[in-house]
Specification:
The protein is mainly alpha-helical and 107 residues long. Helix content is 77%, strand content 0%. The protein contains 4 helices and no strands. Helix 1 (15-43) runs antiparallel to helix 2 (47-74), helix 2 packs across helix 3 and helix 3 (76-85) runs antiparallel to helix 4. The longest helix is centred in the first third of the chain and has 29 residues, at 15-43. 6% of the residues are buried.
Length: 107
């Protein structure tokens, strides 16, 4: 089995970096799965099947959220930026700028 998640020799990477790479890969896979379910849901005509697909997609979203939270807990600057953007009403780009400013303030 081939693992293409590393761009540097895996044996030279710390365990922490290898874990990071695995979680990033998992995050990407969850995003793909959410997108695949979105396509399936948009075409499904059977209400019961559609309900099952919606449930499965919600599970993928939960997995995505857990992966993201794991990464944010280990990267405080990312958490600061995310806190300014996620779950905030109003203009997303404006919040992103605030998040960038907050990250810079940590330096």
């Amino acid at each position: 089995m081939s693992f293409n998640q590393y761009h540097e020799p895996a044996n030279e990477l710390s365990q922490e970096i290898r874990t990071f790479a695995r979680v990033i890969t998992s995050l990407q896979e969850e995003c793909e799965a959410i997108g695949w379910y979105e396509q399936r849901i948009s075409l499904e005509q059977d209400p019961e099947a559609k309900s099952i697909l919606l449930h499965a997609q919600a599970e993928e979203c939960l997995h995505f959220s857990m992966d993201l939270e794991f990464l944010l807990r280990r990267h405080p600057k990312w958490r600061v930026a995310a806190q300014h953007v996620l779950f905030q009403p109003g203009d997303i780009l404006s919040h992103a700028k605030q998040g960038e400013n907050a990250q810079e303030a940590l330096d």
